[in-house]
Amino acid sequence: MADKKQQGLVQVFTGNGKGKTTAALGAVLRAAGHDWKIYIVFFFKGKRDSGEFTSLSKFPNVVLSRFGLRPFADPADITPTEKEQARRALAAASEAVTSGRYDLVVLDEVNVALDYKLVSLDDVLRLVREKPSHVELILTGRHADNRLLEAADLVTEMVKVKHPFDKGIKARKGIEY
Ligand code: ATP
Ligand code: MG
Fold it and tell me: Which domains does the chain carry?
């Protein structure tokens, strides 16, 4: 368990380069080694057989919660079910954060849900503001809102210099999923 005297901070991984979700999962790996209690909310389903779900389910101190937009959903074509899923994802994250039961909470792709207007920025900012002091929060996804960046303690922007996708190499098992 985390040292309750240690201040938890708010981290954001954004930008159009690869590495946002994997950075968050790297942080999870490190915290899990210190027996922190960890809750991860995936706002987007991703590929069903993505390796991290299988790996993370082996950690006794990591709880996974998966909601779901289709991978690469078209923002102009979001179904009511998907909207409801995003709302539930944020509710699950809020419950995990405010419960104080977790030391690290990850909201993977919440920035995309915000960008698509599936959840409200005010709700996310409230979550950031009202988190118990020991809880570390990590929020990922492209197009993070400036108000979230202002509220965060750590912001890293992944800048795409090159991505193999641009030369036609599709997502690879074990690397992208
Ligand atoms: P990763 O999960 O590999 O850390 P990410 O979280 O930074 O990537 P997302 O924005 O969530 O990236 O993108 C979803 C998928 O698209 C991932 O499989 C990712 O590897 C891939 N991807 C990331 N950046 C790019 C890019 N610039 N062009 C094409 N595909 C990308
Ligand atoms: Mg991602």
Answer: 10-159 (3.40.50.300)
Which numbered atom of ligand 1 lies nearest the CA of 44? 11
Ligand 1 neighbours, Cβ below 6 Å, are 16-22, 142, 158, 160, 163, 165, 171, 176
Q: What is the pLDDT of residues 43-80, one digit of tens each?
A: 997 777 899 999 999 999 999 999 987 877 788 888 89
pTM over 0.85: yes
Distance between CA 15 and CA 11 in Å, rounded?
A: 13
Residue 108 in tokens: 């993977």
**CA–CA gap between residue 74 and residue 78 (Å, rounded):** 7
What 79-88 contacts at long range (C-beta under 8 Å, 24+ apart), as own/partner pairs, is: 82/118, 83/118, 86/43, 86/113, 86/116, 86/118, 86/119, 87/118, 87/119
